[in-house]
Automatic annotation (TrEMBL):
It comes from the Bacteria. The keyword Lipid metabolism does not apply. Keywords: DNA-binding, Transcription, Transcription regulation. Residues 9-77 form the HTH gntR-type domain. The keyword Secreted does not apply. This is FadR/GntR family transcriptional regulator. Pfam families: FCD (PF07729), GntR (PF00392). InterPro entries: GntR_C, TF_FadR/GntR_C, Tscrpt_reg_HTH_GntR, WH-like_DNA-bd_sf, WH_DNA-bd_sf. SUPFAM superfamilies: GntR ligand-binding domain-like, Winged helix' DNA-binding domain.
Length: 233
């Protein structure tokens, strides 16, 4: 026989793409309830088991949500929910792949910081300064880590681009940052990274996008160099 029966994964993937197309074309809106599994399977011409797998996959992706006793709904399609998998990638990546993620983060973080310099509110700037002061007041890596994450998260939100902020949140693996801070502690490099954070804050306070971009790129670039040195060892 020359013909091969289509693989189930292929059918399920087609169902996933068709449901995504229905959402993208506005036939299914955020918050709207999906037709029943049976009706949707009939509409798309696939088996109920394949439809069930497609719905399960889209639920894991954050596109759909199951409400007990009510049915399956399209989520609000918030960027943070849809991009949660970035966090998994960052937490599980090692070696050269982690360097690649840092390169992506350097590009996005420098752009976000430049945007923040033009858009940051006085309250957000005060929060950045608060976390900077807290980082400078302790040598405890856990406390520094917590305020470092909050420092960069506030800047990303101040950029005014929720999608970019969500991607950066995903790329900011707490596990990896903890390793960096412990390494900095062993190398007595806290002073250097504190200067880098202070330079970012000064650029934001001066409302200077290009200085902010350069300061953020240099800061993440230092982490890249540190990681490359660790790999070489």
């Amino acid at each position: 026989m020359d013909q091969t029966a289509p693989q189930k994964g292929t059918v399920t993937q087609r169902a996933i793409e068709q449901i995504k197309a229905m959402i993208g074309e506005g036939r299914l809106e955020p918050g709207q309830r999906l037709p029943t599994e049976r009706d949707l399977a009939t509409q798309l011409g696939i088996s109920r088991s394949s439809m069930r797998e497609a719905i399960r996959a889209l639920t894991v992706m954050g596109v759909l949500e199951a409400r007990h006793g009510s049915g399956i709904y399209v989520t609000q399609l918030e960027a943070g929910d849809l991009l949660e998998t970035f966090g998994v990638v960052a937490d599980l990546s090692r070696g050269p792949r982690l360097v690649e993620l840092l390169e992506v983060r350097r590009v996005l973080e420098s752009t976000a910081t430049a945007l923040a310099a033009a858009r940051i509110t006085p309250d957000q700037l005060a929060d950045v300064e608060k976390h900077l002061a807290a980082m400078n007041a302790t040598d405890d890596p856990e406390e520094i880590l917590s305020h470092d994450l909050a420092f960069h998260r506030t800047i990303a939100l101040a950029a005014g681009n929720d999608t970019m902020a969500a991607i950066l949140e995903g790329l900011s693996s707490r596990t990896f940052r903890a390793r960096v801070w412990r390494g900095y502690q062993e190398e007595d490099a806290f002073a250097r990274t504190r200067r880098e954070h202070a330079r970012i804050h000064r650029a934001l306070a001066a409302r200077d996008p290009e200085a902010a971009r350069a300061a953020a790129a240099a800061h993440v670039g230092e982490v890249e160099e540190w990681l490359r040195a660790q790999l070489d060892e």
